[in-house]
Amino acid sequence: MNSLKYQMIIQWSNEDDCFLVGFPDFPNQKWRSHGDTYEEAFHNGLEALEALIIAYKTSGERLPEPRTISQVA
């Protein structure tokens, strides 16, 4: 999917005992997916991001602009 230019944060959670996946470019989407391993979290995160983009497009909601490295610095 060509629109996958968004940040994906993967972080271990002791509380949840798994890796959590978040997309900081999307408002109100702190943790969107998870996985028992980093690899599983990554793959689940890609699927979640694709589903999130499809949901935005289906609802007619405008996708947020992805942050780029020049905007982060």
Describe the structure.
The chain contains 2 helices and 3 strands, in the order βββαα. The chain has 73 residues and is an alpha+beta fold. It has one domain. Strand 1 (9-13) and strand 2 (18-22) form a beta hairpin. This is Type II toxin-antitoxin system HicB family antitoxin.
Indicate the overall shape. globular
Structural class of the secondary elements? alpha+beta
Number of helical stretches of at least 4 residues: 2
Residue ranges: pLDDT <50 for 5 or more in a row? none
Largest sheet: 3 strands, antiparallel
Number of strands: 3
- Helix content percent band: 25-40%
Average predicted local confidence, pLDDT = 89
Strand arrangement within the widest β-sheet reads 1-2-3
Taking the alpha carbons of the first and last residues, their distance comes to 26 Å
The arrangement of helices and strands along the chain is EEEHH
Radius of gyration, whole Å: 13 Å
Strand content: 15-25%
**How many domain regions?**
1
